[in-house]
């Protein structure tokens, strides 16, 4: 039964994996064009495993931003995973803490959505870990493979640096964010972040980006609280 649950997680995640392939390839291709070493890109995909945070980190690395500020910025960008983790505590409450910590590394937007969609139908407690791993391992393996293929393409194909892939990084990041713009609070916070980032673009070490993200996150959290209070 656990094996069936694992492969069911793989199958259910297939549409998400297909959608993530262009972003993984583009991340690998952009690394050489942005002056980021191949081993740094590989480590980002293997150890960070977060598409939006990796794109942000690569842009900051290319700009020569200090490491501490990069870590802080990517942490803020990925704060939504804290909410995901809290939501996952209920269906996985039967697990010991070390196992929960290990599983949390593989938690992505795609696996969170896939797991909860299946959970809302029927997913017995004894099959939940296997199903989760099927989805998560499939996403992780796909992201690593796409990063390697993108790095090969970015470093081997001639003339790729003249294709304007730096702009494609911005486009890819926006495409990943678009599904979040269905909610008013996300639209408002995105506009605030954009305006503040524009006015603080000359701050040293890209600190304006961090400031803009923090303010936008506070606004989004406040709006979420107000909406909940209204309900």
UniProtKB/TrEMBL annotation:
GO cellular component, one term: plasma membrane
Compartmental location: Cell membrane
Keyword Transit peptide (UniProt): no
Entry keyword ATP-binding: no
One GO BP: L-valine transmembrane transport
Topological category with respect to the lipid bilayer: Multi-pass membrane protein
UniProt main location, coarse: membrane
Transmembrane segments annotated in the record for this chain: 67-90, 129-151, 157-175, 187-203, 209-226
Keywords tagged on the record: Cell membrane, Membrane, Transmembrane, Transmembrane helix, Transport
Domain of life: Bacteria
Family stated for the protein in its record: Belongs to the AzlC family.
Entry protein name: Predicted branched-chain amino acid permease (Azaleucine resistance)
């Amino acid at each position: 039964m656990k094996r069936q649950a694992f492969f069911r997680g793989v199958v259910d995640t297939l549409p998400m994996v297909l959608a993530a392939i262009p972003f993984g390839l583009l991340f690998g291709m952009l690394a050489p064009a942005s002056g980021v070493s191949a081993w740094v890109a590989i480590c980002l995909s293997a150890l960070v495993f977060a598409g939006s945070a990796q794109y942000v980190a690569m842009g900051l690395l290319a700009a020569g931003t200090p490491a501490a500020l990069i870590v802080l910025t990517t942490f803020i960008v990925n704060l939504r995973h804290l909410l995901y983790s809290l939501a996952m505590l209920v269906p996985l409450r039967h697990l010991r803490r070390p196992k929960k910590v290990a599983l949390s590394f593989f938690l992505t937007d795609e696996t969170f959505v896939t797991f909860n969609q299946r959970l809302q139908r029927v997913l017995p407690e004894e099959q939940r870990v296997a199903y989760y791993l099927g989805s998560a391992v499939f996403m992780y393996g796909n992201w690593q493979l796409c990063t390697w293929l993108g790095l090969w393409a970015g470093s081997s194909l001639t003339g790729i640096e003249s294709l304007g892939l730096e702009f494609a990084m911005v486009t890819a990041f926006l495409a990943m964010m678009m599904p979040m713009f269905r909610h008013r609070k996300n639209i408002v916070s995105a506009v605030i972040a954009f305006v503040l980032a524009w006015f603080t673009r000359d701050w040293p070490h890209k600190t304006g980006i961090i400031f803009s993200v923090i303010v936008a996150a506070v606004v989004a959290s406040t709006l979420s609280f107000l909406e909940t209070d209204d309900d």
